[in-house]
Amino acid sequence: MPAYSRRRETIVWIAGWPLWRQRARRRILSRAAVHVDDHAEVCAGLLIRDVGPLTVPRGCYLGPRMTIDTSGPIVLGENVGIGDNVSLVTGAHRIGAPDGRAGEHHAEGITIGTGTWIGSGAMVLPGVTIGPGCVVGAGAVVTSDLRAHGLYVGVPARHVRDLPLDAVSQEPPTTDGILV
């Protein structure tokens, strides 16, 4: 592991300690090429792997114990909410020879559209684009692109229904009576 990567991971680890307030956490993360807007929140326990830069724009919320792999680019829209224990994975391996199936490493970016909400324990895999205004249910695994303003649940994440564009609902999203 290059010295820069080790240094960066150490800085992110220190920033993830629960004793820091948001302002201090932002300042510490900035030393690791993680730029957090003054109106965004990054919770304790954040783990960032690899060496790519990351920007957390206005209104974003990154929940506790989140894991982000920045070997590929990650683009977050404004007002993205991400629950606890979510993983954004940009690195993968091609299928290798029989004597070593984890072949050549490659990275593909992830884009998460403005206003999207990703539930606790979800995983977003390499190369995925999540359209604006989506809700991804807890524990879902996003393996392919999600179109805008949809509710997605399951493994792999599947479209359950379209979400309204006009009014703000006070009811939590459900699918067949199951809280998402």
TrEMBL record:
<dbReference type="GO" id="GO:0016740">
    <property type="term" value="F:transferase activity"/>
</dbReference>
<dbReference type="InterPro" id="IPR011004">
    <property type="entry name" value="Trimer_LpxA-like_sf"/>
</dbReference>
<protein>
    <submittedName>
        <fullName>Maltose O-acetyltransferase</fullName>
    </submittedName>
</protein>
<dbReference type="Pfam" id="PF00132">
    <property type="entry name" value="Hexapep"/>
</dbReference>
<keyword id="KW-0808">Transferase</keyword>
<dbReference type="InterPro" id="IPR001451">
    <property type="entry name" value="Hexapep"/>
</dbReference>
<dbReference type="InterPro" id="IPR051159">
    <property type="entry name" value="Hexapeptide_acetyltransf"/>
</dbReference>
